Amino acid sequence: MSETIGLERDVVTVILGGGRGARLDPLTRLRSKPAVPIAGKYRLIDVPISNSIHSGMERIFVLTQFNSVSLHRHIARTYKFDPFSRGFVQILAAQQTPEDETWFQGTADAVRQNLRIVAESRGDLVLVLSGDHLYRMDYRTLLREHVESGADVTLSLIPCGAGEIGGYGAVKVGTDGRVLEFREKPEDDAARAGMEAPAGLLARRGIPAGRPYLASMGIYLFRKQALQELLGGRLADFGRDVIPRAVRERKVQAHVFEGYWRDIGTIGSFYDAHMDLVRESPPFDFHDPAWPFFTHPRFLPGARVSGTRFNRSILAEGSVVLDSTVEESIVGVRSVLHRATVRRSLLMGADPYPPEGPPGAPPLGIGEGSLIQDTIVDKNTRIGRHVRIVNKDKVRVGEGPGWVIRDGIVVIPKNSVVPDGTTI
């Protein structure tokens, strides 16, 4: 460990935040995926930035492209370092340059187009992160293993079962922790044959049987020179192109992570992550005082509550909840509920100055007598009185005026209006 003391200050962090986030539609219609609100008061981008800052890696670039206005605004308002610090969080937006006149074609291409800026930064190591994962991780452990192994690239991996590995990059690892093979999303038994991790490797870490595969978390630590060389040519994507090439040509080491991690790639996974937060014994929460997650300070008053029953729920500041029932739900900043019932749902709340509704629209928030169940309600919505949002027909995928269903979850898009008496 002594070899790595202070070395974290020379790591440059690059966070990938430029994708369209189509699988999170409609939450990404008006914002980029890393700007999607989470846990009532944060945004997804706050997770990798906070982890990086706590790990002592305070020089952070965020690559953006689609629907990035709110993400830029959030970062500018939130992450400000004092003038005597070397830390910064800097936006690198997609742009046309004399070297390349195209927009980002993938995760690797986004880094390639900004490689000159990254290469000019002090230090020999580059940490590449995704902007849409939920986890708490000290990257200094990854750094220590990277330095001790003498690797060109170190991948952070998480154990998983056969039913999960088909959605991720599967990594075959030797008994010494060296990565031997990388397969992108092996969906059947034949595709993942032979990819099980050595039993001894998992046993030494106390990982129980039933999770024999190692999945890539989309967290990569590169030697800067190796990154530059691997990005030569026109490889577009890290998982599909760069990492398989690195395994063939370089020394790639595995770092096995044993904590909570969830890829927020779909409406279903986004909803499930929030239901994790309100479990009786949540596998992940935002309450660790030694490792808080940072976000934009809003200076809001405490929530005002009257005549309301809460059970296993999270209530954010600035909310007004009157004569309601809230069960297994997250109530976001500036939410308004009046004699409503909310179960197993996520209410994202409201912006400081929400747009006006059309003439005759219900007031902002959830109206009297309404029932919201198994639903994601985006910001600034106006849900009228005696509305029932329950997915009564158990639809998996569907769409109608002011609502969308994805993965069986009803989503009320941002700024929507749901008239009095509506049933969804």
What does this structure look like?
The protein is of the alpha/beta class and about 425 residues long. The protein folds into two domains: about 1-275, Spore Coat Polysaccharide Biosynthesis Protein SpsA, Chain A, CATH 3.90.550.10; about 305-420, Hexapeptide repeat proteins (UDP N-Acetylglucosamine Acyltransferase, domain 1), CATH 2.160.10. About 20% of the residues lie in helices and about 30% in strands. The strands form eight sheets. A seven-stranded mixed β-sheet has the order 5-4-1-6-11-8-12, sandwiched between helices. The protein has a seven-stranded mixed β-sheet with strand order 16-19-22-25-30-29-28. The longest helix is centred in the middle third of the chain and has 12 residues, at about 240-250. It is globular. The mean pLDDT is about 90.
